[in-house]
Amino acid sequence: MIGIFGGTFDPIHIGHLQPVLEVLQDLALDEIRLIPCHIPPHRTAPVASAAQRLAMLEAAIRGEPGLKADDRELRRPGPSYTIDTLTSLRAELGDTPLCLLLGMDAFAGLNTWHRWRELIQLAHLIVMHRPGSLPPAQGDVGALLAGHRVDDVSLLRSCQAGYILLKEVTQLDISATHIRALAKAGKSARYLLPDGVWELIKKEGIYV
Ligand code: ATP
């Protein structure tokens, strides 16, 4: 069973990494692919270049064998739609169960994603609690959750896709926005992200 976690990663920080590591371990996944997006469909363009975001990601996961950087979205022209990424992973990985990891805030807005109803046909969804975000109880995403939610992790292994698991993770109220603001103000963000990532940001003046 393989996990997938996409994001802008501008920059990657421990608010991403610690929950992802917990999912890797608690669900006994074989690996989690971290996939930086090329052109995010839902937000303004990243500040760091694609190459810088990938370099920061690689620095962050160095020495952690269960976490892998996957640059397929950076190599694909145009907007990074998760449905396309899942389709290409599914073609590559055959019938391995896939788990798409999402923060609760991202999950709550799932119905704005391109061809969002098809995502659950290609992967399970692992929704990680994020400070300040509650599970959607109503609307299209609330209905999707009600129809697909399970609490038993072993069910995820029994099929390729189709279930939603809400996962308690260590909640770290950290955002890339805050880290960029600190760097721009000439302040240190050192303990909010791995040392290697902060060193790269300083060395290349990425957010100055
Ligand atoms: P920004 O501040 O630039 O919007 P971000 O910190 O939210 O960035 P993204 O790269 O946009 O990071 O997030 C990618 C994924 O990580 C999303 O699914 C988001 O919900 C999740 N995520 C980001 N920060 C956290 C956090 N502190 N705790 C849990 N999930 C998080």
Number of helix segments?
10
Q: Number of DSSP strands?
A: 6
Q: What is the helix content? A: 40-55%
Radius of gyration: 17 Å
Quote the average pLDDT.
95
Overall geometric form? globular
Which small-molecule ligands are present, each listed once?
adenosine-5'-triphosphate
> Could you give a short account of the major beta sheet?
6 strands, parallel
CATH topology, which one? Rossmann fold
Q: CATH top level?
A: Alpha Beta
What is the total number of structural domains? 1
Oligomeric state: single chain
Distance between the termini: 40 Å
- Structural class of the secondary structure composition? alpha/beta
Regions with little confidence, pLDDT below 50 for 5+ residues: none
Widest sheet: strand ordering = 3-2-1-4-5-6
Describe it.
- This protein is of the alpha/beta class and 208 residues long.
- It has a single domain, classed as HUPs (Rossmann fold, 3-Layer(aba) Sandwich), CATH 3.40.50.620.
- It is built from ten helices and six strands.
- Strand 1, helix 1 and strand 2 form a beta-alpha-beta unit.
- Helix 2 runs antiparallel to helix 10.
- The site of adenosine-5'-triphosphate has 18 residues, from helix 1, strand 4, helix 5 and helix 9.
Summary tags:
single chain; 208 residues; alpha/beta; Rossmann fold; 6-stranded parallel sheet; 6 strands; 14% strand; globular; binds adenosine-5'-triphosphate
